[in-house]
Specification:
Layout lengths: L11 E4 L5 E6 L5 H8 L4 H8 L8 H12 L6 E10 L2 E13 L2 E11 L8 H15 L4 E7 L3 H8 L5 E6 L2 E7 L15
Parallel strand pairs: 5-6
Antiparallel strand pairs: 1-2, 2-3, 3-4, 4-5, 6-8, 7-8
Helix pairs in contact: 1-3
Length: 195
């Protein structure tokens, strides 16, 4: 992957099912504060499902350091997209989708998506994931791997409902989904903005 962004023109706008417009752009190191504020707007369940820790174990120091680490994107091996809303005159992070190449399998990448609780079920996750797939294809990624809790039916439905071939397997209360991408193929979804 080269250092220049090869995705659709950024930033762009997506619209929730209920008509709210969100701006999507690449995450940058200066967004650490946005990630930190977003974390404190998540429910304990969302924190546990995404970060595999109990909310009470997330000290302010850990949240701060994690936000800085997650915002520091190495464009040669990872990509991250953030969806933003204007709330009381301030830009706030609503959702983040990312992938990072596996060190010994450069055509495969671990991927994740997190949507703030008050925007879950509005179509944001699907639209952001579709944009992440475009990023992954442009970076010649062949497989995106999502690891989630086995009872996280919303995430499983989201990842497996994109019309792409996938492999799924259960292990130790977790569910691993491998989405198989064909970089040369046109996306099977051409209707971003209506999901």
């Amino acid at each position: 992957m080269n250092d220049q962004h090869h995705s659709p023109a950024m930033p762009l706008t997506i619209t929730t099912r209920d008509g709210r417009a969100l701006r999507v752009r690449h995450l940058v190191a200066a967004d650490a504060g946005l990630l930190e504020r977003m974390f404190y707007r998540l429910s304990p369940e969302s924190i546990y499902r995404r970060f595999f820790i109990a909310a009470e174990h997330a000290s302010p120091e850990l949240v701060h350091k994690s936000a800085q680490r997650l915002a520091a994107i190495n464009p040669r091996r990872e990509a991250a997209l953030v969806a933003l809303a204007d709330e009381q005159g301030q830009e706030e992070a609503i959702a983040v989708a990312r992938f990072a190449r596996l060190p010994h399998q450069p055509q495969a990448a671990e991927a994740s998506i997190l949507v703030r609780d008050d925007y879950q079920g509005t179509g944001v996750g699907r639209q952001l994931l579709e944009l992440l797939l475009e990023e992954a294809r442009a970076a010649n990624i062949e497989r995106l791997i999502f690891l989630t809790h086995a009872d996280n039916t919303a995430m499983i439905r989201l990842a497996t409902g994109l019309g792409l071939p996938f492999h799924g397997r259960h292990a130790d209360g977790l569910y691993e989904i491998q989405l198989l991408l064909q970089p040369q193929a046109r996306p099977v979804f051409e209707f971003i903005g209506t999901a």
